[in-house]
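Our consortium's second objective concerns turning raw sequence data into structural hypotheses that experimental partners can test. To show how far this objective has progressed, the report includes one record in full. It was chosen at random from the queue rather than selected for favorable results. The single chain below, 77 residues long, was entered without modification.
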Amino acid sequence: MRKAEFEVPAEVFGDFAEKLTELELDNRVLGRNEDNEIEIEVSYSKAEAGLIDKLEDYLEELIENIEEEEEEEGDED
């Protein structure tokens, strides 16, 4: 089994967890890091490597959305 680790901002943990469930990947929560992100370890087989790529892309989208929302809030001030 291969393993991948993800650092997920708390704001999008629910969305990320839903995607993990949808992809049916084995995972475990390791805890929080110093940036208050939730660390998740995902176990996968070689055949599931493409699913890890999808998960990485999805997390990247979620983080971009957070950054865009923060920029919009900053513009409103």
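The partners drew two points from this record. The chain has a mean pLDDT of 94. The beta strands are 2-9, 26-32, 37-44. Both points have been shared with the crystallography group to help prioritize constructs.
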